[in-house]
Amino acid sequence: MDCLNLGCGSRFHSTWTNLNFTSTSKEVIAHNLTKGICFPDASFDLVYHSHVLEHFSQADAEVFLQECWRVLRPQGVLRVVVPDLEQIVRTYLIALEKANNGSEEWAANYQWILLEMFDQLARNENGGEMKKYLYQQQIPNEKFIIQRCGIEVKNLIEMSKQKRNKSNNLKHIHDLFIKLSKFMLQSLPGKIYSNFKIGSFRQSGEIHQWMYDQYSLSLLLKKCGFQDITKRTATESFVPYWTSYNLDTEPDNSVYKPDSLYIEALKK
Ligand SMILES: C[S@@+](CC[C@H](N)C(=O)[O-])C[C@H]1O[C@@H](n2cnc3c(N)ncnc32)[C@H](O)[C@@H]1O
Questions:
Q1: End-to-end alpha-carbon separation of the chain, Å?
Q2: What is the DSSP letter of 124?
Q3: Burial 40-73 (b: 16+ CB within 10 A, else e)
Q4: Contact residues for 236 (Cβ-Cβ < 8 A; gap 6+)
Q5: Helix, strand, coil % (nearest 5) of the chain?
Q6: Which one of 24, 122, 144, 211 has the fewest CB atoms closer than 10 angstroms to its CB?
Q7: Residues 117/92, Cβ–Cβ less than 8 Å
Q8: What is the predicted pLDDT for the residue at 192?
């Protein structure tokens, strides 16, 4: 099988073709996916992307899914993984009700789920409010957050704890360099510096530009020509031995990103 992982970040399988905005390894090709998918028609049996589609505007997302269709062979499988808007909204409503009824535990969960819903859409700097929340000295609802967001966020929390415990000389040099470039850019007239900073950040691929639930994603896939659109779990797939690739699951079979919606569809 020829398999393609788009916007793989540092989560990829070495036997696949892996693409990302910037190359994260020698096995990852650097490519901007808003410029199309750089392969001929009908090149792959499986196209996969996880937590990528929401980084495109609605218009770019449609063109991107048409590109996925183009590079798939007939009977090929598309597997799309995105943060599940429906799951987030349902959790938000539960958190709102419980926080309103005076639960301190749910007041913290309410704060977190608001961040999940809005921060990646609204932030103007790396990590946004989510990073500040995860880097605070004492996170009141660490278990809730890890249950929702999985190993990636667990590692971030761990890293922030370690960082707090050791001073890092290289970091001082890095901070000095950032301060110096900021100073030079700040000498630009008027609001040019802040406009430039926000503009380049918002085009860096970090922010979310849209969110999907099963209903809206299925409609979009249908519009792009896909058939047999099927909701999956992290372990279910049309693809034989899916879990052996360890993309949506970890080697111990735990789910990599539990906040996800998994949808597969066929090119017929
Ligand atoms: C949230 S990360 C997900 C990474 C990985 N797929 C995973 O599930 O852990 C989103 C990835 O999409 C990539 N990305 C965003 N916009 C992109 C673009 N226009 N072209 C290529 N990659 C892009 C980012 O570089 C980043 O690695």
A1: 17
A2: -
A3: eeebbbbbbbbbbbbbbeeeebeebbebbbbbbe
A4: 242, 262
A5: 50, 20, 35
A6: 122
A7: yes
A8: 81
pLDDT of residue 106: 98
**Domain 3-84+212-266 homologous superfamily, CATH:** Vaccinia Virus protein VP39 (3.40.50.150)
Taking the CA of residue 152 as reference, the ligand 1 atom at the shortest distance is 9
Q: Which atom of ligand 1 is nearest to the CA of 24?
A: 27
- Cβ of residue 150 lying under 6 Å from some atom of ligand 1: no
Q: Which has the closest alpha carbon to 21: 12, 11, 9, 13?
A: 9
Tokens of 35: 């410029």
Q: Helix or strand or coil: residue 249?
A: strand
Give the phi and the psi of residue 110 in degrees, each rounded to 5. Answer: -60, -45
User: CA separation (Å) from 72 to 4, 41, 45, 266?
Assistant: 9, 7, 6, 9
For 50, the enclosing helix (H) or strand (E) is strand 44-50
pLDDT of residue 181: 73
Ligand 1 pocket, mutate which of 20, 50, 153, 201 (most atoms under 8 A from CB): 20
Alpha-carbon Rg for the chain, nearest whole angstrom, is 20
Ligand 1 atom 10, closest CA: 52
With H, G, I as helix, E, B as strand and everything else as coil, classify residue 143: helix
For 78, 238, 265, the CA distances from 231, given in Å and listed in that order, are 12, 11, 9
Q: Are 106 and 95 in contact (CB under 8 A)?
A: yes
pTM for the structure as a whole: 0.91
Task: Give the residue extent of every domain in the chain.
Answer: 3-84+212-266, 86-202
Give the pLDDT of residue 167: 54
pLDDT along the chain (268 residues), means of 10: 97 97 96 96 98 97 98 98 98 98 98 97 96 94 97 92 69 72 71 86 93 98 98 98 98 96 98
